[in-house]
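step: validate -> pass
step: tokenize input -> pass
step: predict -> running
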Amino acid sequence: MTTQPNIASFGGKKYHVNMLNIGQDAFAKFEQVKIGLYSTAVGICFNQMTASQGIKVFREKAVAAMFKEYKQLDDINVLGKLDPDSLTHEQKRNALRAVNLIKLKHDGKMKGRTCADGSTQRKYVPRDEASSPTLSLEALMTILLINAYEERDTAIFNVPRAYLHAKIPDDKFASLKIRGEFVDIMCAVNQEYKDDVR
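step: predict -> pass
step: emit ->
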């Protein structure tokens, strides 16, 4: 005969109210303040949207930001021409989707961001080769909370084109699929890409 392990459950009772030793009304007010603080923190830390939405909201300003982003990618040869007819069916299927974002920076400037959606690579790229040595969201939020609580001095700095300096082995390449209005922006940046539009 086997026994089921004890699984702790915190459902049903409001233990946190009793432990704080405050009444229901005071706790309800605390919950409202907490929600407001959370919304403010999210609004400050994560103030970006899809570029498609950004173009609808900010119009020419968002288009100009995306044009600048694609121009940067073209200027430092991150992107290149690739004849779609020369690709195998497998290579076309494995092409990564371009993710385009608009970020409204703390100084009021707008920045376009483009990256590849690598989620499809999980099917065929080993996990140890696919991991990115970047800061986790949880670590970032923890650092921000510690800095605020301890009233530490903080500074913001920028490493221009940081991700674009990564070296891809010569025997490998990644194909990026650009769609929608971003094809027009890319072709405006470099007319040579028009021949490869499908």
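step: describe -> Residues 48-154+161-196 form one domain.
step: cleanup -> pass
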